[in-house]
Amino acid sequence: MSSTFSFQCLACCSQTKARVGVFSTPHGIVETPRFMPVGTLANVKTLTPAQLKETGAQMVLSNTYHLHLQPGEKIVAGGGGLHKFMGWNGPMLTDSGGFQVFSLSEMRKITEDGVIFRSPHDGQIINLTPERSIEIQNTLGADVIMAFDECPPYPATRQEVQAATARTYRWLQRCIAAHQRSDQALFGIVQGGVYLDLRSQAAVALAELDLPGYAIGGVSVGEPPELIASIVQATAPLLPPDKPRYLMGVGTYREMAIAIASGVDLFDCVIPTRWARHGTAMVKGDRWNLKNAKFREDFTPLDETCACYTCQNFTRAYISHLVRSQEILAYTLLSIHNISELIRFTQKIREAILGDRFTKEFAHWLTPGEMG
Amino acid sequence: MSSTFSFQCLACCSQTKARVGVFSTPHGIVETPRFMPVGTLANVKTLTPAQLKETGAQMVLSNTYHLHLQPGEKIVAGGGGLHKFMGWNGPMLTDSGGFQVFSLSEMRKITEDGVIFRSPHDGQIINLTPERSIEIQNTLGADVIMAFDECPPYPATRQEVQAATARTYRWLQRCIAAHQRSDQALFGIVQGGVYLDLRSQAAVALAELDLPGYAIGGVSVGEPPELIASIVQATAPLLPPDKPRYLMGVGTYREMAIAIASGVDLFDCVIPTRWARHGTAMVKGDRWNLKNAKFREDFTPLDETCACYTCQNFTRAYISHLVRSQEILAYTLLSIHNISELIRFTQKIREAILGDRFTKEFAHWLTPGEMG
């Protein structure tokens, strides 16, 4: 790992593999475990960087696939790189574009070289390869960049997943060779679908490459939630203990708590902002539709224990009024709260691990149950 | 005027009727001349109160017609009144609903009693009278409330306008009789269409009622902009010099400058937020469509002399990217800038009047020309 990056483990849970760490990047530290908000198009939807900072956000994601299509990485670089372009001075991470190419784009063709697809913007044919993904991410300039991987769909046969996992490993080696910037940490991604032995093999193989960080990818793609726990439990403990571990695309309470118990440090998910735009608040592990009639005259905050700007200044009745009126401010206020809520959830786990009270205080979330 | 309200004139222009004042309300002062942002549904679209405060906003408007339909004034009162409900602790003003009933609602029927119309929300028949408008505004709780008036369309015959102006005066007397709260100032509205003698007569008649403030209504309803200047010039000087004067619905540079030269103190307009939602920035008297290709790689702020959050933190290229991507944050950043821009325009005029440089520094805006 470049000396620009370090991961320090400060405390371990005595009963699980949970740990408290500090991940240092050129743009500041990330206190782990921690939820990371998603800023797909170089902004976390509806929020200014000032509002985002107030939620407790430390590391923020952005999407290579989306930024390549609009405005294009050259314009982001022209604006001084992703941090300066979007006004976020904290740590940032870009994904490789792989997941979006596989899940969003039309007319894609996968070969050993990479993926060819049609741009939904202008219909142009785009060829995304491991080298090209890294080149784009080097140009965008996030602190952490992700390897270009093949994310098999769910369900997929063992043979299909095995082939995708093997290709992901070959593509990772090409990503490592293509990577140009020492001020960016390249994370490898463990694939393997729901086949736990393939996951374990991939984790062991990737661990040997001594990368600055590791991700578990291809989860939360439609498989039953109990399988997410099994996948993480079969994977995370095999990754190097002195490197950060990131579970991609997961941001529900139970799945985060169980993953943290397996030694995962970082999470991201679009749920808090997507739900906000649907008028849904995440409160104490529950989801509330603010259009519900019971909120019309409820003059209490969403969560009276929450310190976010929304809960400190507005009532459920007011937010319900804004949602009913389809006022954009509703989505901003709910995004502030929902992101604050998920970050605070991971912060509370962090404090619990430091006090060795994790399994006691989070027992509710560590037992199997509904995804939430 | 209740002792809760006062208007102090601090300075007058030596060459025009322009003046600098301080309007005191139960929720703070308004330094005049000043542009007031519009928060139709108990929020200035896309902005939190914290962001609104940063624009320099002092007094904020909200619309009785809209709030009566959603969430209803009783819910606003249940939330502690308009200020507390929406989290704005500064001065507030509600209009009477008259203008919206005349311009927006369907199936309206005007009688001496008031206006009957069909609610666009639930089809219910609503009867809005001077008494009812004041009752709703008393319940909402803004610092300044407006008389319920009949706003004739443009064009309208002299006879039609004369009838509407006479009715507006009778309705004003009913509003005064109905008004219940000494912590709210009721402003009268001068109507009279484009007929300058009707305007003058109405202004003189209203002035005799010794109200805490006066508005000029029924302008910017489709008439040529040069007529706005004539109307204001024929009206404003006849209103009591020791009371604030408010030109309703006007927020363009030239029309504000010319009105200030006639002694107007306050302005409101939805243009800055509406244009923001169309991706348009107001810069130095001009309007820019941020989708224009020339902004794609323009890494300078909208206005390098502007101190607003948007100009201090983001480039034209970034905002252009957000507008192209239809990201809500674009509308927030443009609303912040556009409102800051109009408020600063009136602040600069204020400073110029204080230094008696108004006609010299604002000569460009004081001569007839394109509406802007």
TrEMBL record, chains A, B:
The keyword Oxidoreductase does not apply. Substrate binds at D95, S96, G97, G98, F99, D149, Q191, G218. Catalyzes the base-exchange of a guanine (G) residue with the queuine precursor 7-aminomethyl-7-deazaguanine (PreQ1) at position 34 (anticodon wobble position) in tRNAs with GU(N) anticodons (tRNA-Asp, -Asn, -His and -Tyr). Catalysis occurs through a double-displacement mechanism. The nucleophile active site attacks the C1' of nucleotide 34 to detach the guanine base from the RNA, forming a covalent enzyme-RNA intermediate. The proton acceptor active site deprotonates the incoming PreQ1, allowing a nucleophilic attack on the C1' of the ribose to form the product. GO terms for cellular component: cytosol. One of its GO terms (biological process) is tRNA queuosine(34) biosynthetic process. This is Queuine tRNA-ribosyltransferase. It catalyses: 7-aminomethyl-7-carbaguanine + guanosine(34) in tRNA = 7-aminomethyl-7-carbaguanosine(34) in tRNA + guanine. The active site is at D95, D268. Residues 249-255, 273-277 are annotated as: RNA binding. It comes from Hassallia byssoidea VB512170. Binds 1 zinc ion per subunit. Zn(2+) binds at C306, C308, C311, H337. Keywords: Glycosyltransferase, Metal-binding, Queuosine biosynthesis, Transferase, tRNA processing, Zinc. It holds the Pfam family TGT. Belongs to the queuine tRNA-ribosyltransferase family. It is an enzyme of class 2 (transferase).
